Amino acid sequence: MVTVRLVEMPAVQPVRSRPAPHVGVRSPGLDDTQWRRLSRGQMRVDARLDLHGYVVQEAFEEFHRFMQRSRVMGWRCVEIVTGLGSGARGGSIRRELPQWLHRADIAPMVLGVVHSHQGNQGALRFLLRKKR
């Protein structure tokens, strides 16, 4: 005869995921001063990635490597240049980049995203979370 003993497991706390940032929209957890400095272009850019000339898949791979390196290096503010593109709705990389921000490995890194300048919709500035 086999005896089965039930073991009570501790309750699993649900993982609270942070919503992915949207371009030009202030994220929860971002204070007034940082948001103002980021949106006005007053933060020093630690590194810049230019995606001109890449096809979308290559651009994504470069973007992903760059974001991982940003975390390792402890960079706080980075800029990604996509270019405006030649189509009516802009280039394909420029259209795809906001979707890349929703990835589970990217979204937790980013506090805020804005266009680097109102007149330049082909470049984005990212405020990254500090490493803990």
TrEMBL record:
PROSITE patterns: SMR. Residues 49-129 form the Smr domain. It comes from Bombella mellum. This is DNA mismatch repair protein MutS. InterPro entries: Smr_dom (IPR002625), Smr_dom_sf (IPR036063). Pfam families: Smr (PF01713).
